[in-house]
């Protein structure tokens, strides 16, 4: 071709083109490897630009795609994230109608089934479900079809519960790219079965070009064939092409390359395809050949996203819980049929979608710019402003006694006295110390008769020891305050000459040194110390540590393994431990340490009467540069594994580095709790807003704060407040109640003034392995005429086969199993006030339960 162009200047180019055409006309055999090419424009919903710019990015990219489709009739384009479709529908209605027309032709293809491409580690299990619930409902309403593939090309690890959740919304296929970024071990499969925590499997594919935005260049084409790791099992792979991250999508040059390289001898076949065509081909020919990967898909990179932007993670945890609490309150009111307490469908819908939006995989992980962080926090503040009055009004309605009078209208005794009402959002009884505002407590009649059962705290509130009924409201009168004389009182606060302090109740005895470190935590029932205090090696319970945090690649994203070599214990005292609370119900001490000349940590360590956990209420004033703050606990436990809570369950990870796969997990995900146990003994670490954990042999560390400077130079600067707790236990963590204790730490009992005469427990479950996670009205609430229908979602939390009975005081009309999209699947037998549940390990189930109105 070069010779022709050089030697024959008049006709050389024309002749050279003919040579090229003849070359590309040489066809492959039928067995040649096939590349399924799909146009793609992975548009980050926010990252180095705010949400508002993403709306415009979608419009520009999708307009280009529509124009290309008119010129290239074989072009197919895949696009995820219902939120982006909703933005275009609202802001560019004419463009949106063109998109719907191309979607009807099967060329503009909605995929993913989620509201946004969310982070795969940090959202709660219920938030995962809501991503799919709102995503699939949107695609069904707008395009008349549900997505059949979960599409998450760019996130930083994948929870082991995703296969079960995907299956529950009708999705059995999964695609991602990011696992190819692992630094240490290369993932061994391209097309395979991914088996989740409960045993559910998903057909999964990792495009071997390791890129969700190829340019159809020869390097990507050859890498797709050569990088295919399941040769002999399958004979094809997906290639996603188009400018991505900031949008742009396919270009004419890329489309011309596909046409030219479609079927050239010696190269892979390239065909314009769809996800459905690719997965169908695998399902028809190759399923029995595929390997299976069991458990989480751990990305050996970007572990810093479990810690970066702590305030976003705090908001996320609290609002996930608060939204579920609102749903529980107003579900109770719906069944009580109390006038003026309608279910807040619109506010909940808007609030959930805003929380889901901020779970995008560069926002919740903390890897966006300062402007995005401000947008996200503004959204959180608005959600909080919308639902806080709902929480207050809902509890006030439940506390008012109006429903009590309604139920007892036929009886003589309807006299209701002033009371303080406690709301418990969990499906188990709780016996604990709570704080009541002083003025509210004064409403209790004759409270002066039992002053011995209360304690005044530093804020002027009244501490009382109470028993709250499961998922419902309990009136508190003086006669129902748990008599402190029935149990051993807290020991008097003690401080010794060497600066050590002792906090002690009937279950635990803690010795705390002048740096706030726990030198000993005796579990009285067993006589065992929770910690192996080692002064020579510098390992102590509650030891704050500062590390250098200078990632090799991505600042906010990464925590490199070499940070462990820079461990620096914090021991410079600003204020030694001094008495903070001292009474019959709560003892606590407070101290302050210097982190640097700019930063400090202040902590209140408290122990309540009857409690089995030692709590650490922490305030950090943080102004560091490329530093990482952790807290360390050398547990007195011998175990080769530690257990971490994940969505709807838990999983075990190694505490050693036998293999490169073990070693690479030096920073891992944990939600509300993590535990180390041996036979009949263990210690758990609970928290209310942290996710990064690292465990080495018997030492467990919780990552608290990170100070990246890119892409947000102000990341995490300022004051942070959070709580963690240590829970030593005998037996298994399941039987000891670690799971329930972590729930309680994250969602305290709430109180309201009221006129309630008797307790109302909406639901109880008689097996602690079965957690009632969610109570809500269905998304489709139009027909509630004959009775009130609630969605109840439960899961098996112990990792066992579990049977139990869910009971309610209200007459049950019907019970039906439903999927996670709240579509009825089968009717169930039930009794007037209960029904039987049977679950396999870590199974998540949903029911539609109808109550008489």
Can you tell me about this structure?
The protein is of the alpha+beta class and 853 residues long. The chain has 6 domains: 1-30; 33-301, 7-stranded beta/alpha barrel (Alpha-Beta Barrel); 304-407, Substrate Binding Domain Of Dnak, Chain:A, Domain 2, CATH 1.20.1270; 410-480, no CATH class; 544-746, Beta-galactosidase, Chain A, domain 5; 763-853, Sandwich (Immunoglobulin-like). Helices cover 25% and strands 30% of the residues. A 9-stranded antiparallel β-sheet has the order 23-24-25-26-35-32-31-28-29. A 6-stranded antiparallel β-sheet has the order 22-21-27-34-33-30, with no helix packed on it. Strands 1, 2, 3, 8 and 9 form a 5-stranded parallel β-sheet that branches. A hairpin with a 2-residue loop joins strand 33 and strand 34 (699-706). The protein is globular. The model has no long low-confidence stretch (mean pLDDT 93).
